[in-house]
Amino acid sequence: MPRKRKKKGQYRGRVIGGRAVTARSKPSSRRARMQTTRSGGPPGTPGIGFFKGPSPPVPGGLAIPPIMPDPYVPTIQIGNQVWMKENLKATHYKNGHPIPLTIDSDLWRYKTTGGRCVYDNDESNSEDLQEIVDTYGYLYNWYAAADRRGICPEGFHVPTDAEFTVLKDFITNDGYAGIEGNALKEIGDEHWDTAGGLDVYGFTGLPGGYRRPVPFTWGPYYRMGNAGYFWSSTSYGSSRGLHRKLHHSGAGIYRYDNDGRHGFSVRCIAD
């Protein structure tokens, strides 16, 4: 697994809702409710469903470039919602147009159209890049997350702010009030700086960090291992988007708005 990258500094998003909550133990009377929704894919995987993605090329026909690299999308169900089990790794929009991979900091800083990047995407750690994508997915700016062409696989979309609220409310009412974030985070400290995740539903939230539009003195990437940031498709003003945050030392699901040029993770929800 890619190693954690710890950097110093402050996150400068603005809190809209939520508050820091002290973690407490998982209620012993509750258990994960992971249901299988399957329309294809390998059998024998408890709690994980698969949505069929793009069909492979027909023998003897024209080869159509796949929208997603894997035709089966692992999913989990939380309440009435079906979520992708992993962070998004899309390189193309649904219509086949590429999502530009933007490495240069100046290009990213002034970009107001869709873009993606890999955490710490520089020559000094090139051997880790594919491993980072495999584990954490790409980081996308909000312009990609909100693009009408869609960055999620067929049958999925980037969640709205309201859909994130439905998720949190379900977890609250399911017996995890005040520790909704812990209910979503991966168990242990393999990726998180501080263990505390319960992974009740199989969401396996990871701390993929983020990319700033204006770099810190040490670079534009920050907080891998410390926090995970997930775009919604909902705008907040003309150039900002709403997102959710999971934090290593906080137990909640925190709601913020931020500059749309930030690079955050994306977790898709079924239509």
Offer a quick outline of the entry.
With 271 residues, the protein is α+β, with helices and mostly antiparallel strands.
Mean pLDDT: 79
Q: How many strands appear in the DSSP assignment?
A: 13
Spatially, the strands of the biggest sheet line up as 1-12-11-10
Give the uncertain stretches in residue-range form: 6-71
From the spread of the alpha carbons, the general shape counts as: globular
Instruction: List SSEs in N-to-C order.
Output: EEEEHEHEHEHHEEEEEE
Structural class: alpha+beta
3D architecture notes:
By secondary structure, this protein is α+β, with helices and mostly antiparallel strands. It has one domain (16-55, 64-270). 14% of the residues lie in helices and 24% in strands. The chain has five helices and 13 strands. The chain has helices at 105-109, 129-136, 142-145, 161-176, 180-184, and strands spanning 14-17, 49-52, 72-78, 81-84, 116-117, 139-140, 156-157, 208-216, 219-224, 227-235, 240-247, 254-259, 269-270. The strands form five sheets. It has a four-stranded antiparallel sheet with strand order 1-12-11-10. A hairpin with a 2-residue loop joins strand 3 and strand 4 (81-84). Residues 6-71 have low confidence and may be disordered.
